[in-house]
């Protein structure tokens, strides 16, 4: 696209435009994708099947090293209990992610997926690219075979976790135990080729520059040009509480202006991804509501459970009725959706 925003232009926009001007441009871009004024959300739950992880990311307060007394691995019974609860709330999806477990191999993940699918009719949005690469490595099989076997066992789509900033200079400093930027993109490329839809994410506000945030967006945009497999882009700032990064100087969280500017820029840069999600989990209700005028068209998940951000000392909570009220009060139409962003029939009790 000859008229798409270049990295140089994007950096000028971020640094020189007023927030309201950038937001107005992003709002116009949102309207080109979603002229009907609908703002979607999904009823689901995050299930972190384990917090035992060998990656050692400096931004994470959730993980525990192998052997730590606070480490856990959920039983199939506990996972089933959590799924039953989300089904009772009308949930249609489970987001399932964990750490890079030191001993679990492909057979363990196949068993987990098959157990869930044999007992529940629910969409499994699970295992981010770093997990896929870790499973592949431990199991001695290719990423392609790992994905194929997980799909056969019941995997429906992949979340975009583990992207952080897709620039290896940054990754070497904050998550050297995780995959490289190129490996993350390669997993997503392979997933898309196998028919899996995925999301893309960005966790910012730590050691990256604005130019590197933009480089991240360009890499996502380029892969979307190639595959068309991303359904949405979700960005949020680092929550430094209780993290190694927070103890080493990244103590001040990104403020709402920086967040809204970055959100707006993502809407303008990602001209081939239809959906941009607001992060009420890190920003709270009011900023999330403002996000709907700065490029976002989706409020994400009702999140009956959220552990990773909470472990960093941030715990905003919104139930479905509160999410719908925020959307309505902002002048939009709330609608439940599926993972692929297709809309569901409206239930009578909301």
Describe what you observe in this structure:
The protein is an alpha/beta fold and 350 residues long. It has one domain: TIM Barrel, CATH 3.20.20.70. It has 13 helices and ten strands. The strands form three sheets. A four-stranded parallel beta sheet has the order 5-6-7-8, covered by helices on one side. A three-stranded parallel beta sheet has the order 9-1-10, with helices on one face. A three-stranded parallel beta sheet has the order 2-3-4, covered by helices on one side. The longest helix has 18 residues. About 3% of the residues have low confidence.
CATH topology: TIM Barrel
Gyration radius, in Å: 19 Å
Task: Provide the helix percentage.
Answer: 40-55%
Q: Architecture, CATH level 2?
A: Alpha-Beta Barrel
Oligomer: single chain
CATH level-1 class: Alpha Beta
The order of strands across the largest sheet is: 5-6-7-8
Under CATH, the homologous superfamily reads Aldolase class I
- Low-confidence segments, ≥5 residues, pLDDT <50? 306-316
Instruction: Give the overall shape, derived from the CA principal axes.
Output: globular
Distance between the termini: 41 Å
Largest sheet: 4 strands, parallel
Structural class: alpha/beta
| Tally of contiguous helical segments | 13
Count of folded domains = 1
What percentage of amino acids are in beta strands? 5-15%
Give the SSE string. Answer: HHEEHEHEHHEHHEHEHHEHEHE
Concise synopsis of the structure shown:
The protein has helices at residues 7-16, 19-33, 76-88, 106-119, 129-139, 143-153, 168-174, 181-193, 210-227, 244-247, 256-269, 280-291, 320-329; strands at residues 38-42, 44-48, 93-97, 123-126, 157-158, 197-204, 230-237, 275-277, 298-301, 333-336. With 350 residues, the chain is α/β, with parallel strands linked by helices. Helix 2 packs across helix 11, helix 4 (106-119) packs parallel to helix 6 (143-153) and helix 8 (181-193) packs parallel to helix 9 (210-227).
